[in-house]
Amino acid sequence: MGSVMRICFVCTGNICRSPMAEQVMRERLAEAGLAGRVVVDSAGTGSWHEGDPADERAVRVLREAGYESEHVARQFHADWFRDLDLVVALDRGHERALRRLARTSAEADKIRLLRSYDPASSADELDVPDPYYGDLTGFEEVLRLCEAGCDGLLAEVRTRVG
């Protein structure tokens, strides 16, 4: 592990949940003075939206809450595990897909669920629900869950980078 920690958030198409988590985490790191020590990005388990911007509803909810929203969707590749310290899945389906891609137990050990960092989440509610087929309130809920998860993740990051 180098001096810079690398985190990748992963959802299905990389246009709703993972870009929202990425932007929240980037902001949390900046506020904590850790932006130079942690690199954050995101990807999807599939290639459906590769090259697309984030969903306009995700962009709207992020901007209204004061976050950046620049984003280009991409697909997660197994060889990325090598350079990443944490691969944070937004739901159990993404976690399973990532575990199938992991080639070693060391790679599999890098995979976490975002909501596992939220002390308010119980073991049976660790998924961030997919807002894609719903309305704006779903995206607002995703943002709230991403904020809660990223707050907990920031604590973990602080212990790792000192």
Automatic annotation (TrEMBL):
<dbReference type="Pfam" id="PF01451">
    <property type="entry name" value="LMWPc"/>
</dbReference>
<dbReference type="InterPro" id="IPR036196">
    <property type="entry name" value="Ptyr_pPase_sf"/>
</dbReference>
<protein>
    <recommendedName>
        <fullName>protein-tyrosine-phosphatase</fullName>
        <ecNumber>3.1.3.48</ecNumber>
    </recommendedName>
</protein>
<feature type="domain" description="Phosphotyrosine protein phosphatase I">
    <location>
        <begin position="5"/>
        <end position="156"/>
    </location>
</feature>
<feature type="active site" description="Nucleophile">
    <location>
        <position position="11"/>
    </location>
</feature>
<dbReference type="InterPro" id="IPR023485">
    <property type="entry name" value="Ptyr_pPase"/>
</dbReference>
<dbReference type="InterPro" id="IPR050438">
    <property type="entry name" value="LMW_PTPase"/>
</dbReference>
<feature type="active site">
    <location>
        <position position="17"/>
    </location>
</feature>
<feature type="active site" description="Proton donor">
    <location>
        <position position="130"/>
    </location>
</feature>
<dbReference type="InterPro" id="IPR017867">
    <property type="entry name" value="Tyr_phospatase_low_mol_wt"/>
</dbReference>
<dbReference type="GO" id="GO:0004725">
    <property type="term" value="F:protein tyrosine phosphatase activity"/>
</dbReference>
<comment type="similarity">
    <text>Belongs to the low molecular weight phosphotyrosine protein phosphatase family.</text>
</comment>
<keyword id="KW-0378">Hydrolase</keyword>
<keyword id="KW-0904">Protein phosphatase</keyword>
